[in-house]
Structure formats: structure tokens, C-alpha cells
Amino acid sequence: MSKRVYILILFSLLFATPAMAQVKKVYNEDINPMEQIDAALSQAREEGKYVLCQVGGNWCPWCLRFAEFADTNKAVRTTIDKNFVYIHINYSKGHTNPEAMKFLDNPARFGFPVFVILDQEGKRLHTQNSAYLEEGKGYSEKKVNEFLLNWTPEAVNTLK
User: Fold this and answer.
1) Is 2 exposed, middle or buried (0-12, 13-18, 19+ CB in 10 A)?
2) How do residues 94-120 score in pLDDT, each as one tens digit?
3) What are the backbone dihedrals phi and psi of residue 135, each rounded to the nearest 5 degrees, phi first?
4) 55 near 104, Cβ under 8 Å?
5) Cα–Cα distance between 127 and 53 in angstroms, integer?
6) What's the DSSP call for residue 95?
7) Three-class DSSP category at 76
8) Is residue 48 within 8 Å of 92, Cβ to Cβ?
């Protein structure tokens, strides 16, 4: 290997690793996603909320970026906490979870992350391609909040 390649490798190890280590992993590959969904549905019924499933994996930078955004953006966090039980459904190599993906109506076709809104009985109300919520190298507070507010129990039940 040339000296330039060694320098590039050293540079990437010095600067990329600390940044990557700081990223919070939100997808648990060890939980059964159907049990996770069932628990979220039970909680949603108790609390009068819907379930917001974020499907993706720890391998996906946009998935982790959204999870961080949802935790740190006050307006979005408030909307989620008030209206949804928010869960992360893992989809990764070796953990494609076909039963959960079938139950959620194959959301992987939209790319990752993808969001699926379930009512309290587990009926899929909406699948959202996350690309429409992006802005620059992150997510738009306005677009995300607009999406979420259109799928709250109050908004959906107003339409009935």
C-alpha cells in the first residue's frame, strides 16, 4: 500500500471512529419485533395513542439521524409523546423479520427509515417514506410535525 493510502486510513480511524461511537444505537436486534409491536399496541390502547413504528437499523445513518432528531427537537418530541407510542423495528442483514414486515405491509419497499402508523388495534393507517421529511442533511421540523399531526388519533377520528 502506498503512503497516501495509509494516511487516509489513519485519518479515517482517528476522526470517523469517535463520531461514530457517539451515535446512539436505537434498534435492538435481540427483541422479537412482533412482541415489540404487541406491547406497543397494548400501551397505545391504555394511553389513547397510536403506534409510530420507525423501521430501519443501526447500520442506517438516516435512521439514527431521525431517532436523534425525534429525541432532541422539542416540537417533534412533544407531538410524539402526546400522540404515539414510538418504537424502532429492526431490519438488518440476518434480521429481516419477515413476519413483522408482512404485518406492517412491506414498508421496506420505501427505503429506510420508513414510518408506519398503527391504530390501537394494529391496523396500518399510513406508511411514510422518510425522504419527504428530509431537509438538507437532516429532517425538517415543519415536515415531520405536519406528517405526525395528520396521523394522530384526534386527526384520524375527526375524519370519521
Assistant:
1) exposed
2) 899 999 999 999 999 999 999 999 999
3) -150, 115
4) yes
5) 9
6) B
7) helix
8) no
CA distance 66 to 138: 8
Provide the b/e sequence for 43-59 (b: ≥16 CB within 10 Å).
ebeeeebbbbbbbbbbe
Provide the residue count of the chain: 160
Distances (CA, A) of 116 to 5, 6, 15, 67, 159: 43, 44, 35, 14, 19
Is the pTM higher than 0.90?
no
Residues 124, 104 contacting (CB under 8 angstroms): yes
- Measured CA to CA, the distance from residue 86 to residue 40 in angstroms comes to 8
Residue pair 51/84 in contact (Cβ under 8 Å)? The answer is: yes
Q: In this structure, what C-alpha cell is assigned to residue 4? A: 497516501
Q: Is the dihedral of CA 49, 64, 145, 143 positive or negative?
A: negative
